Amino acid sequence: MRKDFLWGGATAANQCEGGWQADGRGMAIVDVLPQGENRLPVMQGVMDYRTLPEGTRYPGRDGIDLYGHYKQDIALFAEMGFRCYRFSFSWSRIFPTGEEAQPNEAGLKFYEDFIDELLRYGIEPIVTICHFDLPLHLVEKYGSWRSRAVIDAYLRYCEVIFRRFRNKVRYWITFNEINMLMHLPFMGAGIRFEAGENPLAVKYQAAHHELVASALATKLAHEINPDCQVGCMIAAGSVYPYSCRPEDVWESMQKDREAYFFIDVQARGAYPNYAKKLWEREGITVDVTEEDERILKANTADFIALSYYNSRCVRTDGQGEASGGNVFASAKNPYLTCSQWGWPIDPMGFRITLNALYDRYEKPLFVVENGLGAVDVLTPERTVEDDYRIDYLRTHIQAMMQAADEDGVDIMGYTPWGCIDLVSATTGEMSKRYGMIYVDQDNDGHGTGERIRKKSFYWYRDVIANNGENL
Which residues of this protein are catalytic (predicted)? Predict the structure, then answer.
């Protein structure tokens, strides 16, 4: 591994920050994602959040109150030995509606204090500019990213944060898991479908606007601070054919391309022919100007960030059992065991995914999410014996190190997801825990909020201390 390898952890404002009405913050997408059975339809953009019944609980509004606990939490990250910490800004904390002439100074001051606290411990901030986040006003006024007006709002936000934190933040990620727009359009990008619309056409037009915004943000960041690096990010995980049946192999290639599509544009600077042919077959016209094409070509990403939780498997014979795995449909792979949520556990798939991305793009990779969601039990001794999480992280770190040391993949760092327990993005639960720090809070938000070190806390501290040499 690199001697300057960035070991750390990752969270996001929409899942942990809370403080949803503090210091002038405006309403955001996360504030209308409900708990319970209506969550998925709202995230998919097929149910209007405005029709939710009274008394609905919105778990992201409170998160784990990182807003009120950040000094304590950062001290725990420092105790684990973090060299970096990946987190996100809440856009509506800085621009409450997205259209203000001037930013909310209280919001900027919060992030300045937050970053200063990280730097005081020698922890490198890795900032995601937009992590499943958007001021709700932009959703209601413009239909979110379906409108070019949101590009301007995003760039106004970017310019403020790039200038404010020019000398404090070296690594930026423009959009979290940008390909999630195609799977959970409202959660990922604030897209809600109207009757009679072609959802695929809406998603691709919104995707184009995000891609142009990402390229322009990259350009702007480099102008303000030529020494900073700007990355794109994909929800990654190689897709296996269930068999060597050619139809299965072809289907796996098609599924991989669904994710590659975004990074093909962000890393290579142009739309791939397979995407153009898809639009042609589906009768989709995406408004792409010559100026858009020039912008995309001239402002590609410096590095590729990725999340990896599991691989996927596809079969085309209509037979067999389905498997879980985030929001991506998958056939059950008979060679893999699964997590409590049905996600396949596949460290070799991690190595395969890293190699595939590096072979395709030849840009440095940054693993900014990887982890195991599980039900943790707090013992009478006030700890969590999460050996299952240690086993998952150990085997995946081993696979990552093989990709780097044996295969030559250039990997910048590793920030496992949910270094501290937080609200699950997909299910809205606290019981689906990822952290190495336990937070005393249940699915309904009840609990003391106390932070408690798990067994994995001490294990990961040792991994960082020896740069992964002893797992």
Answer: 369
